[in-house]
Amino acid sequence: MSSKHKRKLTEFLFLFPTLFAFVMVIIIPFILGIFYSFTDWQGTGAYSQIVGLTNYKAIFSEPGFLHSFLVTLLFTVLNIITVNVVAFVISLLVTSEIRGRNVYRAGFFIPNLIGGIVLGLVWQFIFSNILPSLGKALGWDAISKSLIANKDTVMLTMVIVNTWQYAGYIMLIYVASIQGISKSVLEAAEVDGATYWTRVTRIQIPLMANAFTISLFLTLTNSFKMYDVNVALTNGGPVAMFMGKPVQASELLALNIYQTAFKYNNMAQGQAKAVIFFVVLTIFSIIQVSYNKSKEVEA
């Protein structure tokens, strides 16, 4: 055996455990999930018959799923805006000459280390107990009642919590990008009379196009797949009306899929929802990355 073939064999042997695990845990379950979405499988034993597109037709006539889909889109848009705006602003702060900037970096990142379930329970206590008590004491009607019990404000609480947790992580991406910009370019612009705002908008932001592509992609996928905070903070509640039917006001797609499969024991329909979820997330991700990549080229 030649040295070239030996090297390829060695590389394959090193990759094989990871590839085997990926195929067994991701690829095969994914293919089986697509197949089961066309059956009446209930999660135990074998399916009794193939039902074709019946599960998919039932999904699109289900108010709860349609509402969850719209709510997830709304949450994703709001979350992408707030997380990235906050992350970019604090990245400018911690890369400035402010004293203690390294401490600020650590402080902003720490919330990302807290598990979603714990985070949701902590903020649930804040929104349900601390803020209402404070509102009553100060006479502020806006927060005198639980914000997560109000269908009009529950989405706002989820955006606040996710931004508080995730902005510090996205901040690190922006910090790395800002530090990669040559200081001589910024100094030359300052000498030419460019204001701080001009330097940020005309120099830093265009040179950070790649960081925005990565950050927007991560925020998009994180928002669509949100589950743990959704469960711990609101568990989908409170109840709202949609298409004349009662639905869960803050139930995102991931929670809706879980409830269908495990709470209502309808595994096949849950798989069908998961397939739709995957297709939609893939389409949105491709559009977002393609758009941002085109902007990178222009920049």
- Series of H and E elements: HHHHHHHHHHEEHH
- Relative strand content: under 5%
User: What's the CATH topology label of the largest domain?
Assistant: MetI-like fold
Proportion of helical residues: over 70%
Distance between the termini: 50 Å
CATH architecture of the largest domain: Orthogonal Bundle
Q: Name the poorly predicted regions.
A: none
Computed over alpha carbons, the radius of gyration is 24 Å
Largest sheet composition: 2 strands, antiparallel
Q: How many H/I helical runs?
A: 12
Name the shape in a single word: globular
Instruction: Write down the overall mean pLDDT.
Output: 91
CATH superfamily of the largest domain: MetI-like
Q: What's the total number of strands? A: 2
Task: Indicate the CATH class of the largest domain.
Answer: Mainly Alpha
How do the strands of the widest beta sheet line up side by side? 1-2
The assigned structural class equals mainly alpha
Q: What is the domain total for the residues?
A: 2
How would you sum up this structure, described in words?
The chain is an all-alpha fold. The chain has 2 domains: 1-27; 62-298, MetI-like fold (Orthogonal Bundle). It is 72% helix and 3% strand. The protein contains 12 helices and 2 strands. It has helices at 3-36, 54-59, 63-94, 101-109, 116-138, 154-179, 183-191, 196-207, 209-224, 228-233, 253-263, 267-298; strands at 239-242, 245-248. The chain has a two-stranded antiparallel ribbon. Strand 1 and strand 2 form a beta hairpin. Helix 4 (101-109) crosses helix 6. It is globular, with a radius of gyration of 24 Å. The chain starts with a helix and ends with a helix. The mean pLDDT is 91.
